[in-house]
Amino acid sequence: MYVTDAQQFVVQSFLYAPYGEIILEYNTHAMGEAFPKYSFNAKELDEETGMYYFEARYYAPPMFTSRDPHFEKYPNFSPYTYCYNNPLKYVDPTGKDGEITIDEENKTIFVRANFYYNSSQLEQSKKYNIKNGFQDALDAWSNDIKTALTTMGFDGYTVNIQFEWKEVDIGNATGEDAIKIIQSAANAGPIGNSIVHDEMVSDAAIVSGSKHLSANMIKAGHDKYVFFGINGTATHEIGHFLGLRDRYSSSNSEHAPNIKGDLMSSDLYRDNAVTPFIRVMNYNNLTPGTSKSVLINKNNKEAK
Description:
With 304 residues, this protein is an alpha+beta fold. The protein is 23% helix and 20% strand.
């Protein structure tokens, strides 16, 4: 790994073993001022203890110093192990879960996404609990994902779907300032998405970059049966987080071909997320018998 300055000169570099032990280091500041040491997985190294800070816990190669907070989900692995004992294949950016979609060897599938929000900023409606509405939509997606995987032939696999809410402290910020804080927190996470209230959104909702959902939550609460109903707006918008495109109009260059009744269409009555998620799996070439890790982002989305 190389670290460069503004003139693109190498000021720091590391050669390390698969589990993060430093084998060789080059540091132009070694004989002068202190230089921050961000090395393995871009995590800060505490030179006094030799441990990396992985947000959820500390990592002392080749093991974590405390248990995985999600250890109950992985009974076949030690709660202190790093990347399922296979760092050449997987990464663990936060110290909580590995970034993996299909683990063929252990017949396990993970679908993960974090949703950043702020309670006071999100809950603008007095008629409806907005967060609960989105949670219902996420639960619907979870059920449909499992059905889709069964349909694709992933029989005998353990499916772990981890959709987690992350509260963001916005202090006294309001309006556009609050939105920027929440979206920045989401941008900092490899699987981070944001859900925010924006009074300026005139449509039902907008998702930008497959990552940031903005909606006027007052209108959403008022039209709760349309926005949060079965296969409604909220369920549709979550599809964009997984890289799916709208299927409204063939004249729109950003849209995929229309499919009548598809969840990503603009039809009044739409089907569930089973077929759309199968499309997500297919365009990423995720099939039974493969081991592959995929990160959905603005550069990895459904073809037009």
